[in-house]
């Protein structure tokens, strides 16, 4: 044995006969019928509170003061984002908005001037002639206002995509770097997807909504100002006319939010079926076992429900609108009666009265818009808040940074008494693991499922940090080094490698941080060593072939072919440490043999340390050392021959696998590459 291990004092344990996790079976027989999804009565239950819909309908349940109280904060937030994204356009939008509101108010005053001339004494042609200058003024104000509004829209069109791009880039930059253990948390997944799906979408929408909110608020203020100038008693009259309209608008906005929430929940349920029916990956299985019929039936059942729901919501909305108009109409009637009384009493000239009617109409429409948009802004801002909160949380979960960079060459990696327990777990995944890896060595990790091999590999890759013990590169603790610089010096090839929907060449270079630049000779050597050269050669377009059926002209690879590309990607990286976590599980036996030959003998860097995790023990016999994991510890360590001679766990597993093959492999007594889990 070449490496001290923490094997039990009583010697190496014998082979296991029963699975450690087996337990008595208590599962009853399944029922004869089962619903395909939620029943009619509870179609949206459980969906409404799902992570992606938590804020849907929030505006419907918030009180009016709650909505109003949040508006200044939201406006300030959007203003800040806009300012950071594009100062000139933000300033233009604000100034144009203010000037446009002033033009609206001046236009109203000029209209009263026109009415004043039209309602004065004298022959009609004279009255019209006298009103012409005021009419030109009204036209001038209206034209200027139109130009200013175009200025607001142009500035908004400039600033909105910038806000979205800035938010999206920052969001993706942060979330792409968050530490692995945080990403593996289920809540994290929910939060990130919510921020991506909804937060970014509403961040774009909310800019226009805040502009509309400001425009409506300014118009309302302008109207109040004009009425105050005409006669101070008109101000309470404005209030009297707008309050019923406001109440109706609040009710109708809330009803719309409630109905949207339900409609959205139903839509999402339906989309599960359309996704499955359209999905390329599911296509073969759906067709081979006639599952389409079952999915289409369920889809039809749900769409019928949606159609009924749509009609119900439409009728409700129409009735609510009618009720709103009736309430608003009563308010307007009372207002006009009061106005008539003021005119009869001689408090107000006729022209001012007519101007007041105009102003009140503008005030009512501004308030309705204000209330509708305020509800939209309130609810959508919750999603934007979520997005910003995820960004903030991501900043706290970034890997450690340091001036100390991982070296390009390493003679020795020492792992000493490393402990690691996954968050939320009681049992440690690694419970005091020690070993040394030397430059140029190939070391295999073997052991039962769940014994800690992959966790140990991820620790070596710098993806997790040891909670106790240390991992040192030539004596320097990796925790003192910049985490990303360590990760860059380690190449990982995992069992289920990412299938990048890019060209074959980009799939090989992506691990070095580029999709577009390649070192041709190195790429060819890596592809050859992994057996991926044959895969690429057979593709139309070869290196440039797009590896995704989702795109026009894209190619589909088999699982084994993808594995070869992934191994080539790992070999292409100029890594100090190459970690292969069962990369050949989906390869055919000759391909698997070729990859192990390449890893053992054809590596591109002779000083590279290679760690190989495999359940197929035939592939590890030629490794310099084999570490046997059990329950988060290393229980045996040595070469194949040493471990076979020791007659412990490894020997038992190997003999079990070997007994599954009639003929030996490239060593006497060793199994040919094939699958037989220990
Ligand atoms: N992301 C994770 N979160 C929580 N627990 C985990 C996570 N990954 C692994 N574990 C647990 O840690 C223990 C060790 O798992 P690990 O994947 O390291 O084992 P392994 O030896 O690589 O297994 P296998 O041969 O099945 O790949 C197991 O109990 C497993 O359930």
Structural notes for this entry:
The chain is α/β, with parallel strands linked by helices and 678 residues long. It has 3 domains: 68-396, ABC transporter transmembrane region fold, CATH 1.20.1560.10; 401-489 and 575-678, P-loop containing nucleotide triphosphate hydrolases (Rossmann fold, 3-Layer(aba) Sandwich); 497-574, no CATH class. It contains 19 helices and 10 strands. It has helices at 58-61, 64-85, 87-118, 124-177, 180-183, 186-230, 234-278, 280-288, 291-344, 350-396, 453-460, 483-488, 504-509, 520-530, 532-537, 559-572, 589-601, 640-646, 649-658, and strands at 412-420, 430-438, 442-447, 468-473, 476-477, 490-493, 577-581, 609-613, 625-630, 633-638. The strands form 2 sheets. Strands 6-7-8-3-9-10 form a 6-stranded mixed beta sheet, sandwiched between helices. A 4-stranded antiparallel beta sheet has the order 2-1-4-5, with helices on one face. A hairpin with a 2-residue loop joins strand 9 and strand 10 (633-638). The longest helix is centred in the first third of the chain and has 54 residues, at 124-177. It is elongated, with a radius of gyration of 36 Å. Mean pLDDT is 82; it is low at 1-23, 41-48 and 664-678. Adenosine-5'-triphosphate (ATP) binds next to helix 11. Adenosine-5'-triphosphate binds next to helix 11. Its main location: membrane.
Distance between the termini: 22 Å
Give the low-pLDDT segments: 1-23, 41-48, 664-678
Give the number of DSSP strands: 10
In CATH, the architecture of the largest domain is Up-down Bundle
* Shape annotation: elongated
Please tell me the overall pLDDT.
82
The value of Rg in angstroms is 36 Å
Given helix and strand content, the structural type is alpha/beta
- How many domains make up the coordinates? 3
The CATH topology of the largest domain: ABC transporter transmembrane region fold
What proportion of the residues form beta strands (DSSP E)? 5-15%
Number of helices: 19
InterPro entries: AAA+_ATPase, ABC1_TM_dom, ABC1_TM_sf, ABC_transporter-like_ATP-bd, ABC_transporter-like_CS, P-loop_NTPase, Type_1_exporter
Transmembrane segments: 90-119, 131-148, 201-221, 233-253, 334-360
Region (Disordered): 1-39
Domain ABC transporter: 413-656
